[in-house]
């Protein structure tokens, strides 16, 4: 505002005609229209490339899998349906193999008892398909014997 007032004062002192602030602003925009358009176009391109980069990184990055993160992502996908096209919830949800590995680690560390381990392993095997169940039973019995 001060700059516009200064321009008006210089215009009046130099014997020119007083122009309103709106006219001065429009004249300045008229002179800079090419630069404004170029800045907007470059801004749109920058946002598009940023979005493409984020999507590419999310699709190619190995993301830590856990139930807490999966529940947050599912909530976000429910809130913002456009996020479903990126399948992030499936990428962060632990697989049966991840759950088995976590369960085995808890058993080895002594965090859970034999009965809890067996019960949770049976639950995981029941959640898997038939082929996975038969191979998993063999692997489980071998590892328990070790």
UniProtKB/TrEMBL annotation:
Transmembrane segments: 35-58
Keywords in alphabetical order: Membrane, Transmembrane, Transmembrane helix
Amino acid composition bias (Basic and acidic residues), ranges on this chain: 123-132
UniProt feature, compositional bias: Polar residues: 133-146
Domain of life of the source: Archaea
Region (Disordered): 123-146
Protein name, as recorded: SHOCT domain-containing protein
Organism (species): Halorhabdus tiamatea SARL4B
């Amino acid at each position: 505002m001060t700059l516009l007032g200064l321009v008006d004062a210089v215009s009046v002192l130099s014997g020119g005609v007083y122009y309103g602030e709106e006219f001065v602003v429009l004249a300045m925009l008229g002179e800079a229209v090419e630069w404004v358009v170029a800045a907007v176009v470059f801004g749109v391109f920058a946002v598009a490339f940023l979005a493409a980069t984020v999507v590419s990184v999310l699709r190619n990055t190995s993301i830590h899998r856990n139930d807490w993160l999966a529940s947050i992502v599912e909530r976000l996908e429910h809130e913002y349906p456009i996020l479903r096209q990126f399948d992030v919830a499936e990428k962060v949800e632990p697989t049966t193999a991840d759950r088995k590995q976590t369960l085995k680690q808890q058993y080895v560390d002594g965090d859970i008892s034999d009965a809890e381990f067996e019960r949770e392993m049976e639950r995981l095997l029941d959640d898997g398909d038939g082929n996975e169940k038969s191979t998993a039973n063999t692997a489980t019995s071998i590892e328990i014997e070790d």
